[in-house]
Amino acid sequence: MDVFEKVKGYRCISCHREYGLKEIQYTCGHCSGNLQVVYNYQNIKKRLSPRDFTESIDNSIWRYIELLPIKENSKRPPVHIGWTPLYKADSLGKKLGLKNLYIKDDGRNPSASSKDRAGAVVVVHAIEQGLNVITCASTGNAASSLACLTAPMDLRTVLFVPATAPRAKIAQLLVFGAVVITIEGTYDQAYDLCLKGSDEYGWYNRNTGYNPYTREGKKTVSYEICEQLGWKSPDKVFVPVGDGNLISGVWKGFVDLYEIGFIQRKPRLIACQAEKSDAIKRAFESDGVIRPVSGRTIADSISVSLPRDGDAAVMAIRGSKGFALSVSDSKILEAIPELAAETGVFAEPAGATSYTALKKAIARNLVEEDERVVLLVTGSGLKDIESAMKSTRKPFRIQPDIEELKGILAEGIL
Q: What is the rounded CA–CA span in Å between residue 271 and residue 28?
């Protein structure tokens, strides 16, 4: 389908004003609210069936090109994005008293995080517009994703990250050849400077909560979950939440599939936040207004003081009849080795937040044993080794001597 056959235009999440595709680029011209891409579901429903995807040999996000706001023949990043594994976690499920627990391991994307989904669609859209410099602000993952995806293409990236970002993430930016600007300040300050820089120099801005195409990429994880479950919807999906763009994208994906008749019901979404970075949870549980919090957490990928896509996130939680939970940094760290030992999935702190929140939900009797539950793990633990090392015991260090080995084993460590 042509883009104009499947996409109607944009709608502001805040004031609901509508725009044509060529009318506007980033945010609402009336209230500065975030925009949502609006689809012509009737046209799509006439043209698509689940069989179209079942028969596809393209095991990447591009298998869903008919549900994305880009041209079918546009140039794309050459790396493999999406179609990450969905594991049935029987061992962990048994331990928790759940019969149908699944882990969606999005750390298996090229840059080792779910941000590649958003970055891929944004990069394609930039190319379609003839733009060759892309910028974004990030705590690390969005920037490393953009650097990874643009490296093999004729594109330049200017990336703004807090100087406190994990070294592994900054290393990714540098090896991919990006222009890296580290900020002596917070993610929110980096975000604001990035906006000013893109306005000043005309760079294409990938920022979440600003560029509507990021949500379009992130929604593909919901398509995959349902297809991997045989076009059945989960009952609950636990989603790590920082700026709110991911959970709003996850919700949009399920809504798309429901509207075109691929699934019969939509799941409840659980927003999983760190205790001091829980602005969205607070808004959801009160008047819906997003107010800044400290944003300090070891889970850097969801460390945000003022979520830029917070309104859409609150709408997603409410629309799905879900709820929000916050968890402590200490519990997040405990979850990293526990999740790894039980499932073989090594999560960075933000990725482990979904598991931490699941345990809290079970303790509060908010999850039933027969429900189909999906934990979204958003990034690999290799992105933040220093945090992972804080969560585990120290290695043994001995001389290459069998007697010293026997001494350790005598302590009953096996």
A: 26
Q: Which of 306, 317, 310, 318 is nearest to 34 (CA)?
A: 310
Write down the H helix ranges in 84-186. 90-96, 115-128, 141-150, 167-175
- Cut 0.90: pTM above it: yes
Backbone angles phi, psi at 301, to 5 degrees: -70, -20
For 109, other C-beta atoms within 10 Å of its C-beta total 28
Residues 6+ apart with CB under 8 A from 405: 398
CA-to-CA distance for 85 and 90, rounded, in angstroms?
15
User: 23-61: per-residue pLDDT in tens?
Assistant: 999 999 999 999 999 999 999 999 999 999 888 899 999
Q: Give the model confidence (pLDDT) of 327-361 as tens digits.
A: 999 999 999 999 999 999 999 999 999 999 999 99
Taking the C-alpha atoms of residue 293 and residue 291, their distance in angstroms, rounded to an integer, is 7
**Angle of helix 329-343 relative to helix 349-363, nearest 10 degrees?**
90
- CB 369 within 8 Å of CB 97: yes
Asked if 376 and 237 touch (Cβ cutoff 8 Å), the reply is: yes
Task: Please name which of 142, 177, 96, 34 lies closest in space to residue 356, comparing C-alpha atoms.
Answer: 96
DSSP class of residue 161 equals E
Going along the chain from its start, the domains and CATH numbers come out as 86-112+214-390 (3.40.50.1100)
In order of 74, 156, 223, the CA distances from 254 in angstroms are 25, 33, 7
How far is Cα 19 from Cα 35, in angstroms, rounded to an integer? 9
For residues 111 and 138, the answer to whether their CB atoms sit within 8 Å is no
Instruction: Tell me how far apart the alpha carbons of residues 207 and 214 are, in angstroms, rounded to a whole number.
Output: 8
Pairwise CA distance, residues 161 & 238, whole Å: 27
Across-strand partners of 377? 105
Alpha-carbon radius of gyration of the chain? 21
